[in-house]
Design goal:
The complex is a heterodimer of chains A (108) and B (151).
Chain A (H helix, E strand, L loop, with lengths): L5 E4 L3 E2 L4 E7 L22 E8 L2 E8 L8 E7 L4 E9 L4 E10 L1
Parallel strand pairs in A: 2-8
Antiparallel strand pairs in A: 1-3, 3-6, 4-5, 4-7, 7-8
Chain B lengths: L6 H17 L11 H9 L5 E2 L2 E4 L3 E4 L3 E7 L9 E8 L6 E7 L6 E7 L5 E9 L4 E12 L5
Parallel strand pairs in B: 1-9, 3-9
Antiparallel strand pairs in B: 2-4, 4-7, 5-6, 5-8, 8-9
The chains are: A mainly beta (108), B alpha+beta (151).
Chain lengths: 108, 151
């Protein structure tokens, strides 16, 4: 699966201690496991159940999603920039696969 | 009109009961789904205090398939005092769980925004846990015109 998440940082060049806002959107059906198809059979659940954001290898934000999160899940959060490095966003699918997106932040 | 319990009727009664109970300051009413179970599991049976938590949702959601929701918690977010996790549940969906957000001092600000599905008019409840174990909560009712969990 080659889903490419769309990630936007409000600033990529910041001073130490400043707050950076992250917005991310990823294409995914987020099938709830409660809907039925035309034959009346339940469509199996398939959602992204976990999300995390690591900055320089340190977790700054994470979330567990339930089926009540909309399709093509959008997530927006903030973190405090301490040092330059990669900002890695990871979504975990029910089927065990992961979707990873990366940005870079420069602190100086 | 048929007499008896249809699904919508049951949900409405449950939501109303919980709303009444929340305003009355108790959390003992019966919810239509597992919302209270989830909250009790999260809080370990302790009672969260109203306040500090802010839930931003539209008063009326025309499309229950994607309702923007912002939850924020008033906290300095330092090593000494910060929010560790926030549970968000809905009392009128087939399943109550919406999401759990996990914060750290490195978050800087305890705020998250996502888009959620709401099956019907109901209450959204957010419970925040601080690093010292204290619990805070907020409730917000959203009126839903077209439900978002149908199939």
């Amino acid at each position: 699966m080659s889903v490419k998440p769309r990630i936007k940082l409000d600033r990529k060049q910041v001073k130490a201690g400043e707050i950076v806002e992250v917005k991310a959107l990823v294409a995914h059906v987020m099938e709830t496991g409660q809907r039925k198809d035309a034959k009346g059979e339940i469509i199996p659940r398939k959602i992204l159940n976990k999300f995390s954001c690591m900055v320089n290898g340190k977790q700054v934000f994470a979330a567990d999603f339930e089926p009540a999160v909309s399709a093509n899940p959008y997530i927006q959060f903030k973190f405090k920039a301490q040092e330059s490095g990669p900002v890695v966003l990871t979504w975990q699918d029910d089927d065990g696969s992961t979707i990873i997106g990366q940005e870079t932040i420069t602190v100086g | 009109m048929t007499v008896g319990f249809n699904r919508r009727g049951v949900l409405t009664i449950g939501a109303g009961a919980l709303a009444a109970a929340t305003f009355g300051g108790t959390m003992t009413a019966l919810a239509a789904n597992d919302a209270l179970d989830l909250i009790n599991k999260f809080t370990d049976g302790k009672k969260p205090v109203e306040g500090k938590v802010r839930l931003d949702l539209p008063e009326i959601a025309e499309n229950g398939n994607t309702v923007p929701m912002t939850v924020s918690v008033d906290s300095p977010m330092t090593e000494q005092s910060h929010v560790t996790d926030v549970l968000v549940v809905a009392d009128g969906n087939p399943r109550a769980g919406i999401a759990t957000f996990r914060f750290a001092p490195a978050s800087g600000v305890a705020e998250a925004n996502t888009r959620i599905r709401l099956a019907t008019t109901q209450n959204i409840i957010a419970v925040a846990r601080m690093n010292d174990g204290s619990l805070f909560m907020a409730t917000k009712q959203v009126k839903v015109t077209i439900g978002g969990c149908g199939g």
